Amino acid sequence: MLSKHNHRIYALPTVLFLFLTFLFVSAGIFIQNDERAARISKAQSVAEQVKISLEVFSSERIQALHNLMQNWPTFEPNQVDWFNAQALSLMGMQRGFSSLVFVDANGEVAWVATPASGIKTRIDNSLIGKPMEALGLNVSHLSEELESTLLYSDAAKHHFIIVGRAISPQEPEHGFLVAGFDIQTILTVMLGELVGPQFNFKLNADSATLFQSGELINDGTIVSLLPFTFLERDFSLSMQSQLSPYNAGFLIMMIGLLMSALVSYVLHKQLKGAVNLSLSQQRYLTASEASLDALLIYQPTDDDFFLVEANSYSRYLFRGACDILQPMSLAEQTRYLGLSSEFKNAKNVAELGVPYEAHLAVHSDKIAPQWIKVQVVKAGDNIAVTVRDVTERFRAQHDLKRSEEKYRRLVDGMHRHFVYTKTVDHNFMYVSAGIEKILGFSAEDFCANESRYVRQVPDETFEIRQTIARGEKPEPYIVHYQGKVGTPLAIEFSDTPIVDEQGVLVAIEGIARDVTKELALQEEVYFQANHDQLTGLFNRYAFDEKLREILDETHNDVVPQGNSAALSQVGFKKAANIYSPRAYHKQSVMCFIDMDRFKLVNDSCGHPAGDKLLKEISTIFRQYVNGQDLLARIGGDEFCIIFRNQSLDEVTKHLDKLLVAISNYRFVYDDKLFFVGASIGVIEINESTQSAEALIKAADNACYKAKHLGRNRYFVFHDNDSQMAIDDSENQVLHALHHALQNDGFELYSQAIMPLNVPNQEKAAQLQHYEILLRLNAKDSGLISPGLFIPLAERHGLMNKVDMWVVDNTLKTLESNPAHIDNVGKVAINLSGITLGDEMALHNIAKRMQSTSVPAEKICFEITETTVVTNLSAAKHFISTLRDLGCSFALDDFGAGMSSFTYLKNLDVDYVKIDGSFVRNIVHDPIDHATVTAINNIAHSMGKQTVAEFVVDNATAEVLRELKVDFGQGFALDKPKPLAHRVQWRVKLASA
User: What's the pTM value of the predicted model, to 2 decimals?
Assistant: First the structure.
């Protein structure tokens, strides 16, 4: 019967809902399809108009260029003026040209004509005299078709199409004509006129998006035209009519669904109400008979109540006296059971309507229950009484009370432990006496005020309580308290849920212990395992763990909550517990820091000095991080900072201040003063970051670039095309370097070192003194500066091979020109720090010097001051070995390392080259003047000659002469030239 009613209640409304839904959805789909077809037709029509307009524009400009070339004068005396006049006239008549360029027959830009205003250009008069390649287009002499290229100008932030052709392929002496078009401006004007705001479109060429309006939505309405030619490039156009903000079909479907649901719901409620009315009485009877309580209904008569209805369980509950009690009134029944006082309570319920409930002890031996729970409520004019047998519960409570004393005696004697009982609401209602020995509070005080003494609860408190609510035992957890004397204490609780026969939680019991000492020991072990013992910062292991957690949070849009204090409180627990999901994401920034000149301090003053420097530097770093940032020492002199939830702009402001602080810092040890710096690689941590390893590698590379750019600065790594271009450029230079070592791809240059205090008439008689310079010859890009390939060679361990190539090929050049050797006093060859510390390199150089016909006294090896100080013992051995063969030595870049003159005293060198940073501004800077004076005087007092680098003008040379500096080197005295030219010029001069 019930199944039949349910079928009627749900089947009819469901059928009605489905029918109405079908009608409305069909109408909505029809309207949407009609609107989609109209949008496609509009987009197709406008796209064709745009294509035709662009083709007409392109055809007119290309034809104008052909006309200009066909009318080119054959015998015009001044072709540039003629071209300028014609170009300006053409650009005035036909808009769109950004520039017209005349390139002469030699391939050099002869003239650039640009419009007066309105269109941006990447080609201007600064290119006059430069080769055609500077335009971005290299035109063949023989091509009869226009050649073109698509370029992007960073300065103009626009795309440009450059087209060009030889003016007459049959007469190449006329040169070339090149035209530039500002694509962005042209398309903005033309498409703005043709296409309204109701269309989204995108115009592409050469895989680049040249113009776009709005976002194309892939809903089947995008119209894409076949590629067409515009200014000699293939263009593709995609267009889409914008969707109306009012989607009629969708609105009809939504309104229809809502109306269908409403009509069906109303029908369902009417049917359900009718069925429920007929079933309510049957349900009541079924529930009454299934109840585990005795249910009795009493009807009032005069001053008493008579039983009118009782369920079957009441006969079971009052077994033994059921037949006696049934004919009695309520007053007689209560007297029979010894509960006379309860009759008055029942009358109050009937009069006032306030329910009554009580637990009563039954002393009659006529019925089975000894304890009952009675509830009386008013039911219309009647009263309803429910009676439950609670004898077993009260027996259990009595037994529990009897065993309580025995239990208390056992638990009160426990040392540093206590047992407890909590309510289902987790309020303490009993703790043993051990609590007073641990916290100093009495058991009663602790139960009443426990929440006041709590200092920190577990992060997983909610999960613990859910586990207990399910009747399951949770894992032990720790709560931090403050003792009576203010001492912080940690107590570990082990809860056990107590449930009744029905599985309902009635209490929580457990045992707790004081784990303060164990936790302190664990935190100490955790700290030692995760922190650097020298600086107290996180170590490499802890940094890697935290970095991976940060990456997981970043990828899962998790933002940390809490601070370093919270981290220290959780101790040995995983730091991930202090993080929780949030509804937003913010990036972080990692900084890889390598200390500059740390090895100089370590090697010159010993490891205790290096340790002292690292401690002081770490103190500076701490001043620029906050509680949520991560600061770690990950290597000898390498540190990492992760600025949490800060943008790159915010971090660079911190780094600017940090670098200033490090620049102003002076490290003093044993009366020695050192300047240090920090090279910092900076990289963002965001959702696109792949892995911790890739992040550290990129930051390390950025740190190296900062060192390469001059140290004590930061370099920001950007994972984009420009960064990839930089890396590709370095790879190309490295490839050229390897190729040069294998195929003699280097070229030797030389620059004279001129005497400053020799009269002019005697200079001609002086023997030449010059320094060997090295250039890397790349076939495609010409000579590569040493400033590019020398750092790469040092980084990849190739510098000793480069040095050996220079030594060997310098000697070969001199050996093949014996006449030149007679005119040479000294040939200076630079050696790197890697070679200076390489015993095998020393052996090879010594062997080469012993086998050459070039006198050893004509060779002078230059080594830098910083390299010598860093490898002092190796430098002394290197110098003494080659000096025994007759070679001389020069100490290069002296003063740049700010080292002590004591090293100069202990080094057997012949020349001291004063660093150019002091020489460059000696005319105007009194401090530089005093520095050069001091270096020159001290060097002379030690019997060494001095050479001033970077002599940029005659005024600088005059000052150096006044200071009695022996030699000068710089562009004012001699410019670098190929060694072969210098050797051949001297040979020719001698033969003449």
Answer: 0.40
